[in-house]
Every structure is written in structure tokens, then in C-alpha cells.
Amino acid sequence: MGDYKSVRVEAGKGGWGGPLVITPTDEKPYVYSVTGGGIHPIAARIAELTGGIPFDGFKSSVPFDKIAVAVIDCGGTARVGVYPMKKVLTVDIHGTSPAGPLANFITKELFVSGVKADNIVEI
């Protein structure tokens, strides 16, 4: 059983959405990094502060219902909408706003963008 904590993630400069409160659970322990090149520093920071498990989504995968938050680096239309469509809290390091064929799934309750380290606050 994990001893999880919560963080509040707000939109950064030029960003959109949120704020999101992220609290991993035993059912959803993964801080899923889908940025390429390993665990992104934003994902590592969220995992460190919450006690979540950092996970490289490019090397392997876990079911959507096991993900506490997905950290992405998408400025386009694919990953930016896939995780919100699956009801996964999504943190985009790019200042993206809803666009593309999945835009209707990208809501401020599920998505925040333009996130930098100082946009993550322990609560």
C-alpha cells in the first residue's frame, strides 16, 4: 500500500486548462511519462512529490485505468487528446490548447498545459 500525497498542477505561461489535483492511489499508482528519452523531469517531480511510480510510456505500457497522470510533450493532436479521451489526467509540457479531432475530450478538468516545475505545488 502506497503512502501517496497530492500536488496541484497549474497551467504555465501560455498554457491552458487545469488546475489539476493529482493523487496517485494503489489502483492508479503510475506517473506515466510519454515524452521520449526516458522519464521527463516534470513526471519525475510529480512522482517524487506524490509517491507515485514513474513509468516510461515509450518503453512499455500499462492500462489506462492504472495511470494517475500522463505527462506528455505533444503540441499536435494525437497524445494531447488520447489520454483525456480515456479520462486520464494529462499534463502537457507544451502550451497547447484544445485542437484536432479529439478536442472535445480536452477539458480543463482533465488537461493542463505549458507546465514547468514551478507550476507543481505540494498540497
From TrEMBL:
Quote a single Gene Ontology cellular component term.
plasma membrane
An example Gene Ontology molecular-function term: protein-N(PI)-phosphohistidine-sugar phosphotransferase activity
Q: Which InterPro entries match?
A: PTS_EIIBC_GUT_N, PTS_sorb_EIIBC
Please give the Pfam families that the UniProt record associates with this protein.
EIIBC-GUT_N
**Span of domain PTS EIIB type-5:** 3-123
Biological process (GO), any one: phosphoenolpyruvate-dependent sugar phosphotransferase system
Q: What is this protein called?
A: Unannotated protein
Taxonomic source organism: freshwater metagenome
